[in-house]
Write a structure and sequence with these properties.
The complex is a heterodimer of chains A (361) and B (433).
Chain A lengths: L1 H10 L1 H20 L8 E7 L4 H12 L3 E5 L3 H9 L5 E5 L3 H6 L4 E8 L3 H25 L6 E8 L7 H13 L1 H16 L2 H7 L4 H18 L1 H11 L8 H25 L3 H18 L12 H9 L1 H15 L3 H30 L1
Parallel strand pairs in A: 1-2, 1-3
Antiparallel strand pairs in A: 3-4
Helix pairs in contact in A: 1-10, 2-7, 2-11, 7-15, 8-10, 8-12, 8-13, 10-12, 12-13, 12-15, 12-16, 15-16
Chain B lengths: L1 H20 L1 H8 L1 H12 L7 E7 L4 H12 L3 E6 L3 H9 L5 E5 L3 H6 L4 E8 L4 H26 L7 E8 L7 H22 L1 H8 L2 H6 L4 H29 L9 H25 L3 H18 L11 H7 L3 H15 L3 H27 L6 H22 L22 H4 L9
Parallel strand pairs in B: 1-2, 1-3
Antiparallel strand pairs in B: 3-4
Classes of the chains: A alpha/beta (361), B alpha/beta (433).
Chain lengths: 361, 433
Amino acid sequence: MLLKEYRHILREPRTLWMMFLSPAFVLVALSILFASGSGRVALAVWDHDRTPLSRQFTSDLGSDSDFAVVYVSSYEEIEELLVDQRIDAAVVIPAGFGESALDMDAAPLQVILDGIDTLAAGQATGSLMGHTTAFSLKLSKQFATPSPQLLVHSQRAYLDSANKRNSMIPGLIPIVFSLPVMAAALALTRERETKTLESLVVTPVRPLEYLGGKLAAYVTTALIGLIPVWLVATLIFGVPFRGSPLLLVASTVAFLLASMGLAIFIGNLVHSQQTATVIALFVFFVPGFFLAGLIDPIDTTSLVSTGMSHALPATHFVTICRAIFIKGATFAELWPSILSLLGIAAVWLGLGAWTFRKRLD
Amino acid sequence: MKETLHRIWSMVIKEFLQLSRDKVLMAFVLLGPLVELVLMGTMVGEGVQNLPLAVIDDDRSRASRELIAMVDQSDELLLTTYAENVEQAQSLMQRGKVAAILVVPPGYGDAILDPQRSAEVQIIVDDSNYVAATVAEASIETVAGEIMHDLVANTTTATSGPIETSFVARFNAALDDRPHSITAMLGLIVYQVTLVIAAQSFTRERERGTLEQLRITPMGRMETILGKAIPTLAIGLVDCLLMIGVIAVWFGVPMRGSLPLLLLLTVPFVLAQIGWGTLISLVSRTQQQAILFVFALAMLEVACSGFIVPTTDMPLAMQVIASASSVQHYLVILRGVMLRGAGLGSLWVPSLALAGIASAATALAWLRLRAGLDADSLQQRMRVLWHAYQQRLGQRKAAPRARPTRPTGQRPRLVPEPVRSRVNEIPRRHPRF
């Protein structure tokens, strides 16, 4: 049975290449995106005050490498730039700014943010706050009033550089491994669609043996795909690998079993590959990006979302991959996630086998 | 012309019949997007909230307790553990129980009240999760800023610091993250549904063996593509309209611009997917391959869409490549029209880009179809051409008169030409189709 499945996979060199190398290829392409970006805030400045101090403030802003500044002179212009999505924020310096600032009298400064992308808005707020605080300090130094200070020393626990990439790449591994999982889901539906499943019924192969053979073939094929993925991550992108390779392989097997169980269950429910694909995309693709904690951490405020996130195999595997690569975590620290994966695998494989037998009868 | 329309129409009807026969598929194509959008929209939070925090308070003064209380009250961080020392806190972080550690050193309370000295605190963040680390850092910085601001107000004679900044968020006053992520989901769902349906159009016919039947019909190339495209386009537009309704009614995402404009600009977006999908279905032999192609393409498009990494943060070369992603332009349009109330005047750049991508994809699909309906025909044709070229080279050596491989002026036919005797000499592995 296993041999038949291998022969199936080997017969189509295109499928074979896609299963082996596409995860690594997709990982490369995704990872190039995470080169440390410039992250400049596009800013419009309206200097309504036109005093030497306000001019100094705007020219400071202009020379700061955090900002890309355009100068405007009305609210209408600001609104237009905001609607065109050409600026992230606008700074309005009202008349009387310079006078009150020199009097140490809370000079007002208005900032209009584009609130749609809250991460970008947060970044703009932070940069502008930092800039105005620095400017205030410079001003107060001119008047020699000592002000108390609170310094925050920030230390990153595992990686030296503030590089997004090293944290993102291990998290992307679950996403790229949904490719072989999809292939498994479709392999099952294809047998049904092309009616070769009936001919299997008359052979002495029992349904569970059949499923087991299929599963083993696809899991091992996908596991070989782990090697190029690992090479890409560590050699090309220099992500540290601090954990044990054996643990990574073991948890990858657990993840593949869990998601392939789900895939087999889906494959049993539907008749055509097209339907299987649409459902699998709904289950694996969009939630993988939004719920698995890849970008935003899992939302723990509501019970429903926490539960749903933990029902996804990808969520646990994102945690595991990051922990093994970056933190060098051991089994003693990761067993809750690995156990959850095995639990999910047991549930879906059980359901898959049950529906499969029912379908055959 | 009339006949052409008639032929396209019958193809459209055939496709719809085929789709409606698969009840599960129909349900998933029409209702799946709505259900998924509602589910995921409810589950995605308003932003990063309640990251678990461990605190090591070596100062145990009033000031340090105030600081910790302020951090705990912030939306982003939630105090879960008091740790005795850094090692204990770090082992918690290693197990993923806390996302950040705040260390208040001894003497903090004295230093913060003394204007001559500067007080210090330390924060250690778990940077294996980049977003969480950044948010935790920013949150502590904000709290520190507030404390400094209060201190300045208390100690100096002037009312407050020299500059008082007020922040106003346009379009989304509460800085709720949901409109941003829900619009991204809408774009992605329309994208995946249309791409999958288009990608399996020809592969499915091939696997079921109905492609031969399609070939002997009098349908032209363009007619075949159009007949396959129109049902997908209709499904995409209906899905899009339904989902816009749901997010407006259920989630209260505003519709500030014009709905007809948005639907009009959705057309090139869906057309681009149909173009890519058709191309995929023509180059892959089995549906399995088609799906792998779709998945790989979809991941790249999502990555380039500016949803994971803002496009302006990418390296310049990637920005150029990413501009080929139709999802990126569509999200700009979608958010522009729905959330910002933008008109065509502000959106002509992404609109033109979408139109360009759509026509490029369709042109590629058409060119591929020209080479023949079946997956190997391109390879075969290349082999025929290569062989003819070799022969011509050989002939040129013998006699310098080149012979054209095919009578010029004849329109290339949809059906691959019957294999001539010359061609038969070329070794072929499997005569497919």
